[in-house]
């Protein structure tokens, strides 16, 4: 996966703010009428709810920026992003030549975005992949995300999702993120050091509390922490291994 980091941290910070805001707004913006989105609650999907969430809010944010705050748009930065991601597009100057009806150049930014909607959607998809990649590594964010989603589901009177087998590709991704250790107590679960260590893949927000069967709601725990967590509310840890010591 090629990461070019186009405004990734700005968008990641925006997502972190959103998940602690009103859940009716931030989760209500997902296209729940789409069977693909709705199904993410009940069956593990490689396009996770986190991906749908990031795309929906990047699209909303960017449309609003072009429409309401054109002074915040830097056309050259947009061109550069298209070029770095190799996304075919019509440059603003070219569009402007055939769109001379406005005096102020900034008034043509939003019409340009609408004209190049396909190119912008491709750019937002690439940004989504990168933002979701960064956020999947942040358990603290994932806890807030899943708590907000569960509250949204509680308000719309969802039933709990049924337990299903966690696919190997989810386990591998989570194992990699946790560095083969229990997310809470950091016990080594690789089987190389503690031979009796059992890996348990846990829903950060439990299914019975309206947690989703989604990759972003899974963490790796040892048996002891999983047993202890069973009786307590959703939790995770904010501790990560340093790259070196
Ligand atoms: Zn543990």
Overall strand count: 2
Q: Identify the strand order in the major beta sheet.
A: 1-2
Return the string of H and E elements.
HHHHHHHHHHEEH
| Number of separate domains | 2
Structural class of the helices, strands and pairings? mainly alpha
Report strand %. Answer: under 5%
Bound molecules: zinc ion
Quick overview of this protein structure:
The chain is mainly alpha-helical and 245 residues long. It has eleven helices and two strands. 49% of the residues lie in helices and 3% in strands.
Give a description of the structure.
- By secondary structure, the chain is mainly alpha-helical.
- It has 2 domains: 136 residues, no CATH class; 75 residues, Orthogonal Bundle (DNA Binding (I), subunit A), CATH 1.10.30.
- The protein is built from 11 helices and 2 strands, in the order H-H-H-H-H-H-H-H-H-H-E-E-H.
- The chain has a two-stranded antiparallel sheet with strand order 1-2.
- The longest helix is centred in the N-terminal third of the chain and has 20 residues.
- Bound molecules: zinc ion.
């Amino acid at each position: 996966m090629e990461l070019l980091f186009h405004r990734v941290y700005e968008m990641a910070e925006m997502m972190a703010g959103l998940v602690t805001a009103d859940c009716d707004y931030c989760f209500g913006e997902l296209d729940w009428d789409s069977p693909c989105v709705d199904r993410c609650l009940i069956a593990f999907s490689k396009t996770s709810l986190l991906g749908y969430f990031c795309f929906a809010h990047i699209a909303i944010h960017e449309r609003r920026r072009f429409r309401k705050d054109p002074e915040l748009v830097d056309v050259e930065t947009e061109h550069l992003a298209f070029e770095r991601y190799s996304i075919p597009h019509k440059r603003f100057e070219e569009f402007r030549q055939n769109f001379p009806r406005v005096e102020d150049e900034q008034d043509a930014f939003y019409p340009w975005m609408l004209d190049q909607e396909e190119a912008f959607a491709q750019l937002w998809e690439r940004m989504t992949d990168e933002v979701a990649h960064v956020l999947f590594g942040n358990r603290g964010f994932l806890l807030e995300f899943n708590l907000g989603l569960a509250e949204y589901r509680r308000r719309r009177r969802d039933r709990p999702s049924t337990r299903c087998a966690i696919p190997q590709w989810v386990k591998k991704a989570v194992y990699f993120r946790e560095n083969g250790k229990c997310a809470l107590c950091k016990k080594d679960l690789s089987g190389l050091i503690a031979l009796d260590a059992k890996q348990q893949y846990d829903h950060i927000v439990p299914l019975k509390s309206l947690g989703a069967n989604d990759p972003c709601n899974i963490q790796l725990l040892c048996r002891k922490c999983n047993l202890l967590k069973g009786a307590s509310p959703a939790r995770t840890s904010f501790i990560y291994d340093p790259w070196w010591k």
